[in-house]
Amino acid sequence: MTEPRRSLSLKELGDRVRQAQHRQDPGGSGGGFGNGPRSSLGWAFRIGVDLVSALVVGVGIGWFLDHTFGTMPLFLVLFFFLGAAAGALNVWRLVTRMGMMPGPAPEAAKDRGPEKPPGPEGRG
Amino acid sequence: MAGPLEQFEVKPLLPITVGTTDASFTNASLFMALAVALVTIFVVGGMRGRALIPGRWQAMTELAYEFVAGMVRDNVGSKGRQYFPFVFSLFMFVLFGNLLGMIPYSFTFTSHIIVTFALAAVVFVLVTAVALARHGLHFFSYFFPSGAPVATAPLIIPIEILSYLSRPVSLSIRLFANMMAGHTMLKVFAIFTVAMGVFGVLPLAVNVALIGFEILVAILQAYVFTILTCLYLHDAIHLH
């Protein structure tokens, strides 16, 4: 501190408090994806798990319903396909969020942070 | 010689039976308690001095705090700050569980799917409760994207619900599979080392590299678990 000591006016104090608060909490809704460096193997594993887990849940629900109502193959088959679709949806969401999708992906561009305009630089 | 999967065996240390339920204090319980105790010592002990210029220990504690706080800020947004204690506890518990498992002769509780599934279920229930509390019945619009033709609702809604229900499953499988696969691999190469005599140097070298890799995986998977929790919280607060 080189400036001479003086008591701060209330307005200056208010400004400083606001600055400190902004540093603590810059606001915004977040939603940026984990932006650390990631190996392609890690991505492959994530996509694989996301694809399979929905299928597992679907088959589980289908089997449970069949087991309860005694309609053995009906719900199992139905929820197998629904689970497979949900798995594909999971992968689609994940890949879109990564910004690896060609064509317009407004949701992905929005998710990647407000400061970046949607544009071709998000594609990898 | 012990098989590669024997390290995952849950052994009761202190047999306790509540009614007909086996509630023994097992080696898994021991390491969970140890992880909680170590996290508490790490955080409370590190911040005991409250120095303006932190020492080594306090710097580590502050680093952990800042890391998770930044993660919550970047991924959930400013409304997510009130969930920071939960996210921080979750991260530290998983991280210490993973890292404790890297100590020889210890037990890795995160390599059991029931443990990771219980953690993921807590996250799932909390996220759903947050979404319901914040948005009320409007939360259910999450399962039907706006703008889709109403005629597709019978197909889209079950698929969206299944996709939502698959979150805790994928969250738990990811952590459990990574930890279990890594520890099994370490043990397999250790068995090769013993069985191959002089040539055991080769698998030993592989094991040295693998242990480094496993420490990376231990930290990375704790990070991934936490960041996905943050993303789910973000979805719950903002509903897209």
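qc> Chain A touches chain B at residues 25-36, 42, 45-46, 49-50, 52-54, 56-58, 61, 79, 82-83, 85-87, 89-90, 93, 107 (CB under 8 Å).
qc> done
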